[in-house]
Design a protein that fits this description.
By secondary structure, the chain is an alpha/beta fold. It has 16 helices and 16 strands. The protein binds FE(8)-S(7) cluster and iron/sulfur cluster.
Length: 485
């Protein structure tokens, strides 16, 4: 937001030809980026530094009290950091979490509405932590103005949120009430048309310079759901690397225009349908966690609270660089790559990216399998500790990763009182799944899931995920000559 060639350092999300130098170059850029490579996301961590508070447009899914919803779950607030503070935090965290491979500026406003702070952060990072990849996320309005800085600081990964390519500005006007342009607010369709023109111009400038572009589209039911296919086609024309279709998360409590107007969140099924339609055109990201502007850790985990300002702010750069310890980090990354190589061999390459049903199954029938994991590509998390499930689609020929599903109120969440039972939310989230693979599950929840037709299997505890997903399908739906479907 996956592996096919094997060999240390050659994990592929592309199925590329190893003699193709361009493909190799791209592979080097994505192989340890947890968002650009689905294969990397269980092994490598990212940190977002909240150095960019201002924004230059208004989105109807955003409440400006909170983080930029283009790259975050709405309703969460991040602290703000100055560039020097942000770099200190990165050095501290990079010493502590050696899997850290990427630093992103993703808010809390728009990275390019705060150019001085954003690029000063990147300049310092280049100097102090040259082994990290740099990443930024933007609404695209000011991309073309800062293309030279993006190149200069070697920002190799840029995310642009583009929700519509409707040239009339009509759809855009329902999403963006205004933009700030040439020192004044431009409203409605006129503003939306300028934004679209600047986004397309900026994306082209990036891809022409070999920068990997990921595009986010927020799927807004009844607003842009019919247009996302056109967005995907346009992105392909512009050589965008990856398209991330994110569900609108909407609720009156978020205080957003959409939430207050009763526009509903996009459902898992709506996202899956949009992915199916767009996947014909472009490579999709399906493992995004809509993380916050100060997120720390593996995708899906939030360790931000462990790294408050007071821990690192009084430390000297010298002490922090010692702690960061590039040599030790390099060793850790080598170990991760060795592990990925073993994992890939164990998984027997039965996972295909963006496969059609006929590539997965000889009779076109498939099942959804849910998995609990704490990372490293293994089924190594107890059901009761899970606050999200990875969902795979499996057939008798191969499997593919579909999405993750987050549980807002997991068993491990402390705030719901001792009598709280999240099983109804979990049942609702997994209702279209046939198998749950988990390291351990209690009798009660197992019974509840069995009642809605989900087989719970603990026998793959501490086994590689992909191989287990594939084998469990054979075990439960083939061994007794039961047909799928
Ligand atoms: Fe951050 Fe975004 Fe870079 Fe990743 S996140 S700036 S590309 S390092 Fe990743 Fe988080 Fe989804 Fe963003 S999971 S919200 S896609
Ligand atoms: Fe909010 Fe981000 Fe949109 Fe700005 S670009 S209004 S911060 S969602």
């Amino acid at each position: 937001m996956s592996c096919s060639t094997g060999g240390c350092g050659t994990h592929s999300d592309m199925g590329f030809d190893p003699n193709d130098s361009k493909a190799l170059e791209i592979q080097a850029k994505i192989s340890n980026h947890p968002c650009y490579s689905e294969g990397a996301h269980q092994h490598y961590a990212r940190i977002h530094v909240p150095v960019a508070p201002a924004c230059n447009i208004q989105c109807n899914y955003c409440n400006r009290k909170y983080d930029c919803s283009n790259e975050s779950r709405p309703g969460v607030t991040s602290g703000k950091l100055k560039p020097q503070e942000a770099v200190k935090k990165v050095l501290y965290v990079g010493g502590e979490i050696q899997q850290l491979s990427v630093v992103g500026v993703a808010g809390p406003g728009d990275a390019l509405a705060n150019p001085e702070k954003t690029f000063e952060t990147f300049r310092l990072l280049q100097e102090k932590a040259p082994d990290l990849k740099l990443c930024l996320s933007t609404n695209g309005l000011r991309l073309s103005d800062y293309i030279d800085e993006i190149v200069k600081y070697n920002v190799d990964h840029v995310t642009v949120t583009i929700n519509t390519v409707d040239e009339t500005g009509e759809i855009g006007s329902k999403i963006y009430p205004w933009i700030h342009w040439n020192h004044k607010k431009v409203f409605g369709a006129e503003g939306a048309k300028i934004l679209l023109q600047k986004q397309l111009e900026g994306i082209k400038m990036l891809t022409d310079r070999g920068i990997l572009v990921k595009a986010n589209s927020v799927l807004i039911p009844g607003v842009n759901d019919k247009d996302v296919v056109n967005v995907a086609k346009k992105l392909k024309e512009l050589n965008v690397f990856l398209h991330n279709i994110m569900p609108l998360l909407s609720s009156p409590e978020f205080g957003t225009k959409f939430g207050l107007d009763g526009v509903t969140s996009a459902t898992d099924q709506e996202v899956m349908e949009a992915q199916e339609a767009c996947g014909m055109n472009i490579k999709l990201m399906s493992h995004c966690r809509q993380c916050r502007a100060d997120a720390v850790g593996l995708l899906g985990e939030d360790r931000g609270d462990e790294f408050g300002k007071d821990i690192f702010i009084g430390m000297s750069y010298e002490a922090l660089e010692d702690r960061y310890n590039i040599k030790s980090r390099v060793k850790k990354h080598e170990m991760i790559e060795n592990w990925r190589t073993h994992l890939e061999a164990a998984n027997q390459r039965i996972k295909i990216e963006q496969a059609s049903k006929s590539q997965l199954s000889s009779n076109g029938e498939t099942k959804l399998v849910a998995v609990t994991t704490s990372g490293e590509g293994m089924i190594n998390m107890h059901f009761g500790s899970a606050n999200e499930f990875l969902i795979y689609e499996a057939g008798d020929k191969a499997i593919k990763f579909v999405m993750h599903r987050k549980i807002e109120s997991s068993y491990s969440g402390a705030d719901y009182g001792e009598n709280y039972n999240p099983i109804e939310e979990i049942k609702n989230s997994l209702k279209d799944c046939s198998i749950l693979l988990t390291a351990k599950i209690g009798e009660c929840p197992m019974g509840d899931l069995n009642e809605i037709g989900i087989i719970c299997d603990e026998s793959y505890a501490n086994q590689p995920i992909e191989k287990s997903v594939f084998e469990s399908l054979q075990k439960h739906f083939r061994t007794n000559e039961k047909e799928l479907g």
